[in-house]
UniProtKB/TrEMBL annotation, chain B:
Entries under Pfam families matching the protein: Proton_antipo_M
Compartments reported by the entry: Endomembrane system; Membrane
Keyword set includes Transmembrane helix: yes
Enzyme's top EC category: oxidoreductase
Entry membrane topology: Multi-pass membrane protein
GO BP, one annotated term: ATP synthesis coupled electron transport
Domain of life per record: Bacteria
Domain spans labelled NADH:quinone oxidoreductase/Mrp antiporter transmembrane: 133-426
Listed GO CC annotations: endomembrane system; membrane
UniProt-recorded name of the protein: NADH-quinone oxidoreductase subunit M
Annotated family: Belongs to the complex I subunit 4 family.
GO MF, one example: NADH dehydrogenase (ubiquinone) activity
InterPro entries named in the record: NADH_Q_OxRdtase_chainM/4, NADH_UbQ_OxRdtase, ND/Mrp_TM
Source organism of the structure: Lentzea tibetensis
Length: 643, 520
């Protein structure tokens, strides 16, 4: 890897990408109520400004030839002898791709939030948090080393915490926010220790130097680093075994779920692994673990997604599962990095659109999230229905829509893995496609089709349901995202456009011929998706789904409803023993350690009676004994001096 | 320019005398103004000190010395290195804020503000002197004298069990000090043997004592270390701190936890490492075990506390584990991390304590269970609790991240296992901070401290709840801390530049070099 050039021309203004959203956040959060009237507009303006600049930067970079990689040093952040951490930005195809995704989807969701949060008290604070998120996320992808990445990494964690806990007067939102932050921190440990190992071995944590000298690690260290980075990725991206926080995170407002917990932040793990491709290229075992995690998560997400009745939680598990696909893809190595990023981008479009659609439905349904209380909403929310359905078709891989190009490519690549891996990972990915079609079709039917089941019901706050289409500020972003869901995959995949653009960062996309040809996989995937969707139509299409959730269900459904016991496992393994350990330690500290101290004092004092005097304040006698002690010491000093 | 340092020592002393004058003792309002004026003047002097100090200059700067007890080679000598400089600076920053935060505090009946603030200024003078002393005997004397105003502050102005806490604090620290005195005398004797003239001069002792054989060093090391381990405090010498923190008035808690404790870790760096290098290396494994135990034990206990002020004490115990880990890992990054941790801990824990003090001032209870859902009625207060919590859990962008990151990345090359164990403290920190926030600030408004107007289980209209958000004075107290938290989080280099040469000198006195070298 060659040394990146110093950013010049339009690139020398790249600090604007961080400064604009950070400025917006600062004004909105410090300004307080004074910004109520125009705060949301400032929030939108800064993000759109960042997007416009990002697009200009993208096109100017596109015009360059060669590596297309430059760096812009802003200042020295931490410098102690051998350790130097610059606050510097790296502008290369991978980071610029993310800049467009983050600011592009970010702008749409900011605009959507104007309408969605219109009745919220403290809307400007919400925009302040959103701006904070965008700034942190841009730092995450633009930083030129692992420490700046870590900065952004924890920064988005904070924004996520604040936004999940937006309705913090609701206990479940507050505990979901804490849970997300905590589980993310578990992952962050991995990232942190990997950074320590890099500094220890190479004396640097900047990408260029780490990647060019990656050969100096022993194979054991490489394996350790790949696994530690994977741990970080699992925390941030809701991958097994750290997936349990993501569905709970749906307690946040829907625009947050769309932006942070679908399109951008949760895909940071995929970014991390793709970014670290020179390290992962060296460890086949490390990549195998990545693939296993991806495949396991992909299945877990699909299975649980089939059983949930909460609109957003089904989508959340769908996100878990789709990120599983991306992790599987980047775990495949040079045949998969670019495919993982491609799926990440198309997923960014259609999943954000699906979430915004869900938000639009809930907005029109008194914030109802239970899909059993919906049905037949297509004619009440026509724009939402059409845009949502396009996103749905893209997700299940309907031919020639976005997901068809990006997901099929991953499935085909999985089949090309060596030996048994091809069968297993290819098979899992294929099965996942069928399950995805099943649970998404169930969602489509229960929400939009069939007979309305809400007519005779009232929402929790006692109001009747009067579903209605959302305002333009909400539908317009949904339409834009729907267009992306339809066309982005085709555009990226044609002539390997995206893969070639990313090649300077991710290496050339290698195509390997595996068990099945690309065409066969395509046909198989479409077929199995149709089977899944058809099955859902057969089961739910008659509109007989009861309003109340049936409780007497078979074991698999029960297990899926209980998140496949992920939460129970966490509870048993960590939470409960931790609580007991803490209680025991508090007891020991009071009775044992402190008791020992007081006991010793009593012993020295000769009787516990004296201790009681001590405790009730006979200090003068102690002052006296101290004085005596001092005389004693001074005497000793004299003896020493004149002996 | 050594007058600056002398002035820093004398000014708060004068302030203490002035506010104790009878006419000010009768007028609380005036006494507060006078005390604040003195503490602000002290802060300005500290700024001058910072500007005067040359980071690349001699080991000790702005030195001055006069004979005290000539027969024993005891001098009144003062001077600062980069480590002492940042500690003196942070004291000067915190004291005006402590005075401002306690402006509306009700003192126990019969006590005057003049007396209280006089003791605080006296405490400031002595503590500055402890960091500035360059004579070992002088250091010992100040180390013990430092206890006296604090004893009266806790015992005279504290909570229900204040006498117990004050005596425990006093005896515990005093005992540690006496053992240190024995070691100091040992050093004196060594000097007498080696160079024919006994002395307590630190710079001379460093060159003499380090030549002693390892077993002698170990005994002398232990004398100093025990005193510092109690002061810092390290587990298992920590039990005085929760009592002292819980019983002291909130401003005094800031001084105990935020400032006095640092004398312990400062002492390890100034006395243990340079004077007893062989012993430091030999005993490092023991200290590291205590350090990591402190991180994990303190964190777990913090999650288990029901009282906010005891919670603060255990949080600090965990943080002192990190500081000790950095000191005894013997790398420049870890060492600089530890010193900046000392500074940043004062700022961020100081802020956390003050904010919790503001919570307690509203609810009148220190029990966590008496609160809930406060963010609804006091959003700004909630924001400040969250921000001070985030810096306590070392979120990047806040000051504490820089120091915790430096400690850990610097310790890893020499102590990978201990470092990885200590890293678990990061998760636990997130747990205890966010859990506290969740219990106090989120959910529906609840808790006997907040709903005093309603019966049990009564839901009170938030409009009617007697809880108000931060007032202007409180905002003015917290604003400088918020600024420091962010400034030192994004641009810590001015502090690191001051500290790095002094830590480098300390490590070369220990005789170690960094495992990771520049340009490797």
């Amino acid at each position: 890897m060659t040394e990146p050039v110093v950013a010049s021309g339009i690139g020398s203004l790249a600090w604007l990408l961080l400064a604009l959203p950070a400025f917006g956040a600062a004004v909105l959060l410090i300004g307080g109520k004074r910004t109520d009237k125009w705060g949301h507009l400032l929030g939108c303006a800064t993000i759109i400004g960042a997007f416009v600049y990002g697009a200009a930067l993208f096109f100017s970079t596109l015009g360059q030839t060669g590596e297309r990689t430059s760096e812009l040093k802003l200042f020295t952040w931490i410098d102690v002898n051998a350790l130097t951490v610059d606050f510097a930005l790296r502008l290369d195809p991978l980071s610029l791709t993310f800049v467009l995704l983050i600011t592009g989807v970010g702008s749409l969701i900011h605009i959507y939030s104007i309408g969605y949060m219109a009745h919220e008290e403290g809307r400007r604070k919400f925009f302040g948090y959103l701006n904070l998120f965008v700034a942190a996320m841009l730092l995450l992808v633009l930083g030129n080393g692992f420490v700046t990445l870590y900065f952004g990494w924890e920064g988005v964690g904070l924004a996520s915490y604040l936004l999940i806990g937006w309705y913090q007067h609701k206990p479940e939102a507050a505990s979901a926010a804490k849970k997300a932050f905590l589980m993310n921190r578990v992952g962050d440990l991995g990232l942190a220790i990997a950074i320590f190992m890099m500094f220890n071995q190479l004396g640097t944590t900047q990408y260029t130097e780490v990647f060019s000298r990656v050969g100096e690690f022993s194979s054991g260290e490489i394996l350790a680093i790949t696994l530690l980075l994977l741990l970080g990725a699992c925390g941030k991206s809701g991958q097994f075994p750290l997936q349990a926080w993501l569905p709970d995170a749906m307690a946040g407002p829907t625009p947050v779920s769309a932006l942070i917990h679908a399109a951008t932040m949760v895909t940071a793990g995929v970014y991390l692994i793709a970014r670290s491709n020179p390290i992962y290229n060296l460890s086949e075992s490390g990549r195998l673990v990545v693939m296993i995690i991806g495949a396991v998560t992909l299945l877990i997400g699909c299975i649980i997604g089939c059983a949930y009745d909460d609109f957003k939680k089904v989508l959340a598990y769908s996100t878990v599962s789709q990120i599983g696909y991306m992790i599987l893809a980047v775990g495949l190595g040079p045949v998969g990095y670019a495919l993982g990023i491609m799926h990440l981008l198309t997923h960014g479009f259609f999943k954000a659109g699906l979430f915004l659609g869900a938000g639009s439905v809930m907005h029109g349904m008194n914030d109802e999230g239970d899909i059993r209380r919906m049905g037949g909403l297509a004619k009440h929310l026509p724009i939402t229905f059409v845009t949502w359905t396009l996103g749905y078709l893209a997700l299940i891989g309907f031919p020639f829509l976005s997901g068809y190009f990006s997901k099929d490519a991953i499935i085909a690549a999985a089949f090309s893995a060596h030996g048994w891996q091809g069968y297993v990972f290819g098979g899992v990915a294929l099965l996942g496609a069928g399950l995805t079609a099943f649970y998404m079709t169930r969602l489509l039917i229960l929400v939009f089709l069939g007979k309305p089941r809400w007519k005779d019901l009232k929402s929790e706050d006692g109001r009747e349901y009067h579903p209605h289409e959302s305002p333009v500020s909400m539908t317009a972003p949904m339409i834009v995202l729907a267009i992306g869901s339809v066309g982005a995959g085709w555009w990226f995949a044609t002539d390997n456009r995206l893969a070639e653009w990313l090649a300077p960062t991710l290496g050339e996309l290698r195509e390997e011929h595996g068990l099945l040809s690309h065409g066969t996989v395509g046909i198989l995937t479409v077929a199995i998706s149709f089977v899944g969707a058809g099955l859902a139509f057969v089961l739910f299409g008659r509109g007989t789904q009861p309003v109340e959730r049936p409780l007497r269900v078979s074991f698999p459904v029960r297990a899926a409803r209980a998140d496949l016991y992920g939460n129970a496992l966490n509870e048993t393994l960590f939470a409960r023993p931790g609580t007991w350990l803490t209680r025991a330690l508090v007891f020991i500290d009071m009775k044992g350690v402190d008791g020992l101290v007081n006991g010793t004092a009593a012993l020295l004092g000769g009787s516990s009676g004296r201790l009681r005097r001590l405790q009730t304040g006979f200090v003068r006698s102690y002052a006296l004994s101290m004085l005596l002690g001092t005389f004693f010491v001074l005497g000793a000093l004299l003896v020493v001096r004149y002996s | 320019m050594s007058w600056v340092l002398i002035a820093l020592l004398v000014l708060p002393l004068v302030g203490a005398l002035v506010v104790s004058l009878p006419f000010l003792r009768r007028d609380d309002a005036k006494a507060k103004l006078v005390a604040l004026a003195f503490s602000v003047a002290e802060l300005l002097l500290a700024v001058v000190l910072w500007i005067t100090y040359e980071p690349g200059g001699p080991r000790l700067q702005l030195t001055s010395s006069v004979d005290w007890i000539a027969g024993f080679g005891v001098h009144l000598s003062f001077g600062v290195d980069g480590i002492a400089l940042v500690m003196i600076a942070v004291i000067a920053v915190l004291i005006p804020l402590v005075i401002g935060a306690g402006w509306a505090e009700k003192l126990p009946s019969g006590r005057s503000a003049g007396g209280y603030l006089g003791l605080i200024l006296l405490q400031e003078a002595i503590t500055v002197a402890v960091f500035a002393a360059t004579d070992v005997f002088l250091f010992y004397v100040l180390f013990e004298v430092m206890l006296i105003p604090m004893y009266f502050l806790i015992g005279g102005y504290g909570g229900a069990r204040r006498q117990y806490a004050a005596v425990k604090f006093f005896l515990y620290s005093f005992l540690g000090g006496l053992i240190m005195l024995a070691s100091a005398i040992g050093c004196y004797v060594l000097a007498q043997d080696k160079i024919g003239k006994g002395t307590f001069d630190w710079a001379t002792l460093v060159t003499v004592v380090r030549e002693a054989d390892t077993s002698t060093q170990i005994w002398l090391f232990l004398g100093f270390f025990l005193a510092f381990a109690i002061k810092a405090p390290l587990v298992p010498f920590h039990t005085w701190l929760p009592d002292a923190a819980a019983e002291a008035p909130i401003g005094v808690t800031v001084i105990v936890v935020g400032i006095l404790d640092k004398v312990g870790t400062f002492g390890m760096l100034r006395y243990n490492l340079p004077m007893f290098p062989e012993a430091s290396k030999a005993l490092a494994p023991v200290v590291l075990v205590l350090a990591v135990a402190g991180v994990l034990y303190g964190s777990l206990l913090a999650t288990g506390q029901r009282d906010m002020k005891r919670f603060l004490a255990y949080v600090s115990i965990a943080h002192f584990g990190f500081i000790a880990l950095g000191i005894f890992s013997f790398t420049s990054q870890a060492g600089v991390g530890s010193v900046s941790y000392m500074l940043n801990h004062s700022i961020s824990t100081g802020m956390l304590i003050l904010v919790i003090g503001m919570v307690i001032a509203r609810g009148g209870s220190t029990s966590i269970a008496d609160y809930g859902g406060m963010s609804k009625v006091a959003p700004l207060l909630a924001g400040m609790l969250l921000l001070s919590g985030l810096t306590t859990l070392s979120l990047p962008g806040t000051n504490s991240f820089v120091s915790e990151f430096l400690v850990l990345i610097g310790s890893y090359p020499t102590q990978p296992v201990y470092t990885i164990l200590a890293t678990l403290g990061m998760v636990l920190a997130a747990l205890y901070v966010l859990w506290l926030y969740q219990r106090v600030m989120t959910g529906p408004l609840r808790g006997t401290a907040l709903l005093s107007t309603g019966g049990p289980g009564a839901t009170v209209d938030p409009e009617k709840a007697p809880i108000t958000d931060l007032n202007k004075r409180e905002i003015a107290v917290l604003a400088p801390l918020v600024a420091l938290v962010l400034l030192l989080g994004f641009y810590p280099q001015p502090v690191l530049d001051v500290v790095t040469p002094s830590v480098g000198a300390t490590l070369s006195e220990v005789g170690v070099t960094d495992p990771v070298q520049e340009g490797k």
